[in-house]
Design goal:
Length: 439
């Protein structure tokens, strides 16, 4: 195998090893699955397989490889000279020469370049952490949509069964001459409406499954088992503490802070450009023996002796306007990075505030549904059903009561799903597990 082919093969091998590495080791904000093993398994799989996370990790690894490049010396220069017409010297004709020169940046330049590259690599690490946190959030949002849809489909199926029972009861009333054919028709129409709603839920569930499969890098048609919500974890909303936590833990804030630090190093590097760079060189010259008449009659003691020389040089930073322009550019980038940091902090504060308000409002609505609205609706439905069976009210009253109960049950299921999604949004907002211990 040639050297070129071997290098290509090694490159492909290294790339395959990188692609097969577990992405979850990249680190990132902690998260909690609230004790739900299925959710934890889905998140773990997404973190290991998601192409977006893999892309961000490889970009971070690439940024790490820029550090030794930034701190390395420039390549030395090797030059060879052949004299077509050798110049005569006292010791003989100078036929050829070899020289090696090395440029050395001014003191501190390489250290600053390395610091900049290191901080930018760390910023890429935070970008990978952002991608990781966002994937966790998206998995949770889709998972809780799935939980709501499975509950909604179950309610629609139960409602269909109840309406079928009512239809058979209406047919019996009509056969006994105490009911109207119109009642049967209305019940059939309501059954059709419920079936259409159920089909909409199933279509929505298929789309949500596809979203989860994409996040896990699975075929989009892969089926997922039914999901249900258990007890809702309580959320302690202390906005001051959450704001502090978010500013300390959000990857976006950390990345913005690192960019400010790298721009500070860049300003210092721009200021060092006023210093000259050094050049060290060593040369060797091949000298032949003298062949002229004087040289042959009285050759010098060092006749034909090769020469060696050493050179020290510096650049002359005369174009001060260029260096001052670079320094002003670096200062402008620094101020822009500071402005970006302030913008990021403000956005993070807004995320925490919005998540806090949403969690509080959804929790209050769930409490009202569970303590008042749903029990009242269930009681009204039972009373209406008994009255219809006794023949004291018509089918329209029965349908209104049944529809109100179904809507209340669906709304409560949606609120519970929204509550868990709001917890996921808060977790993303603060940049760490909320609430509970991290997984």
């Amino acid at each position: 195998m040639s050297i070129t082919n071997a290098a290509v093969a090694c490159g492909w091998l290294l790339l395959s090893l990188l692609l097969s590495a577990p992405i979850a080791r990249a680190g990132g904000p902690a998260y909690t699955a609230y004790g739900d093993e299925r959710l934890a398994a889905l998140i773990t799989e997404a973190l290991e397989r998601n192409p977006g996370i893999r892309e961000a990790l490889l970009e971070s690894q690439a940024a790490r490889h820029r550090i030794p490049q930034a701190t390395a010396l420039p390549d030395p220069t090797l030059s060879f000279t052949w004299h077509a017409q050798p110049p005569e010297t006292r010791t003989g004709p100078q036929r050829a020469g070899i020289a090696v020169s090395q440029s050395i940046p001014w003191f501190g330049k390489r250290a600053d370049q390395g610091a900049i590259a290191r901080k930018l690599a760390e910023a890429h690490d935070q970008t990978a952490a952002m991608r990781r946190a966002e994937v966790v959030r998206q998995v949770k949002l889709a998972y809780y949509d799935l939980a709501y849809l499975d509950r909604a489909i179950a309610l629609a199926i139960r409602e269909e069964e109840v309406l079928r029972l009512y239809e058979s009861l209406a047919r019996a009333h009509y056969a006994q001459g105490v009911g109207l054919q119109q009642a049967v028709v209305k019940l059939q129409a309501e059954t059709t409406r419920v079936l259409n709603r159920r089909d909409s839920f199933r279509q929505w569930r298929t789309q949500t499954e596809a979203t989860l499969n994409v996040l896990r890098d699975r075929p989009d048609h892969e089926r997922l088992a039914k999901t249900r919500l258990e007890s809702l974890p309580p959320a302690d909303i202390d906005e001051n503490r959450l704001h502090q936590l978010a500013r300390a833990r959000r990857p976006e804030v950390r990345a913005a802070r690192l960019r400010v630090a790298s721009e500070e190093d860049n300003v210092r590097l721009a200021q060092r450009q006023h210093g000259p760079d050094l050049t060290l060189a060593a040369a060797w010259g091949a000298v032949g023996q003298r062949r002229d008449e004087a040289g042959r009659i009285a050759p010098p003691s060092d006749n034909g002796k090769d020469t060696a020389s050493f050179t020290v040089g510096i650049t002359l930073p005369l174009h001060r306007s260029r260096y001052r322009a670079r320094e002003r550019e670096a200062v402008a980038h620094l101020e822009a990075a500071k402005a970006a940091y302030r913008r990021t902090v403000n956005e993070v504060d807004a995320d925490v505030r919005n998540a806090s308000v949403r969690l509080t409002m959804i929790g209050a609505r769930i409490a009202r549904f569970e303590k008042a609205l749903l029990p009242q609706t269930e009681h009204a439905q039972r009373s209406t059903e008994a009255a219809y069976s006794a023949g004291t009210i018509g089918v329209l009253d029965l349908l209104d009561s049944e529809e109100a109960l179904l809507d209340a049950q669906l709304e409560l299921a949606r609120l519970k799903s929204d509550y868990m999604q709001a917890l996921a949004e808060m977790e993303r907002a603060v940049g760490t597990a909320f609430p509970g211990e991290p997984s």
